């Protein structure tokens, strides 16, 4: 009897040790904190449920234990410095490196053992999503909404009925008045009056010819002005915002995510033309971002819509997100151009973005204190970081450009400009007074040959 109890106690101790060991593997961390750390450090290359640049990490602790007999100590070493682990000759570390095209994972020596355990707990037991609203509450809300809608429809019906009755009464009154006019026309007094009046347009024109000629002259002037005004707006497409083959929201990219304009439009700073970015530029980010996880959703759109547009990028460049490789099958994207300078006009982006950046921003903010800008691009292209669909924000006429040249002062705090335009500044002071400013117009900004060559 004593021997049996002894074995029983030993069995309980063994079971306790086994359970505590299992718990140390699977429940060592804080899953909620692990979720924050995972999103901050891992989501660029990893997801829980699918392969991105690196493998899917859902259940990675259990998977490594079963397949490779590796514990969390190995994972900690890999996360903190996978390069050192590979250099030590670790077989599995080198196998993983080779399997994923020798793409070296970033080292995270800043993560403590507890941080890594929290992340592993998140990959093992992700926190459940926030519970949906109570069904009964939702039902009550729907019932109230339905009742309000029914009351509103009843009120609308009454208004429509009263309006129809009022219109019917008005028509009846008009009918009675017409009958009175017909009776009045049949009197002798009215017949005599009609005999003295003009009965045709010709008679009317001969009687009042001087008035008619004056009216024709006025109409002719208005017609000429209308034609001239119409001709002046040929080629002006302010507000033009065509649909593109792949939906691209500048509000999400430049507004919500604060991506610098010149990251995509790199030639705007040092080139004459600001080019349409190639699809490879898109893939710099979307190679690792295969679905939309942002908080902002445009009215009328949903997450599935944005995910579908990302898939269009993959189809265009021939990218297989499952294998993380290019297939070689590409499809050209026919973008619709929005801003298109005429061939007879010279415009250099670099001249404005580099040399004129401070001057343009300062001038614009003085003239538009309620809509200050922080980047020079917005002076011409509008508040681009608030646009879901890009549109032409200004007229882009010659008059619009000339007005800007007349009011924009040259940046004289720039050492080069201060020295180069010193003599010009002194000359303008003598000619117009000490308060004069050096504008773009003063340095040749109104010369025809500057823009038309």
Offer a concise description of the structure:
Pfam families: Cytochrom_C, Cytochrom_CIII. By secondary structure, this protein is mainly alpha-helical.
Helix content, binned percent: 55-70%
Number of helices: 22
* Main sheet overview: 2 strands, antiparallel
Strand order of the largest sheet: 1-2
Structural class: mainly alpha
Annotated CATH architecture of the largest domain: Orthogonal Bundle
Per CATH, the class of the largest domain reads: Mainly Alpha
Classify the fold: give the CATH topology of the largest domain. Answer: Cytochrome Bc1 Complex, Chain D, domain 2
Question: Domains counted in the coordinates: how many?
Answer: 4
Q: Give the full name of the CATH homologous superfamily of the largest domain.
A: Cytochrome c-like domain
Between the first and last Cα atoms, what is the distance in angstroms? 111 Å
- Could you name the ranges where pLDDT drops below 50 across 5 or more consecutive residues? 14-27, 132-140
What is Rg?
38 Å
Q: What overall geometry do the principal axes of the alpha carbons give? A: flat
Q: Count of DSSP E strands?
A: 2
Assembly classification? single chain
- The ordered string of helix (H) and strand (E) elements is HHHHHHHHHHHHHHHEEHHHHHHH
β-sheet strand percentage: under 5%
Average predicted local confidence, pLDDT: 82
Could you please describe the fold and organization of this structure?
GO terms for molecular function: electron transfer activity; heme binding; metal ion binding. Residues 29-127 form the Cytochrome c domain. The protein is mainly α. It has four domains: 2-124, Cytochrome c-like domain (Cytochrome Bc1 Complex, Chain D, domain 2); 140-197; 250-326, no CATH class; 349-383 and 391-451, no CATH class. Helices cover 58% and strands 1% of the residues. The protein contains 22 helices and two strands. The protein has helices at residues 2-26, 31-41, 60-68, 72-87, 91-99, 113-124, 135-185, 188-195, 201-207, 209-232, 250-256, 261-264, 267-270, 279-286, 303-317, 349-355, 357-367, 377-381, 398-407, 415-420, 422-432, 448-451; strands at residues 319-320, 325-326. It has a two-stranded antiparallel ribbon with strand order 1-2. Helix 4 packs across helix 6. The longest helix has 51 residues, at 135-185. Mean pLDDT is 82; it is low at 14-27 and 132-140.
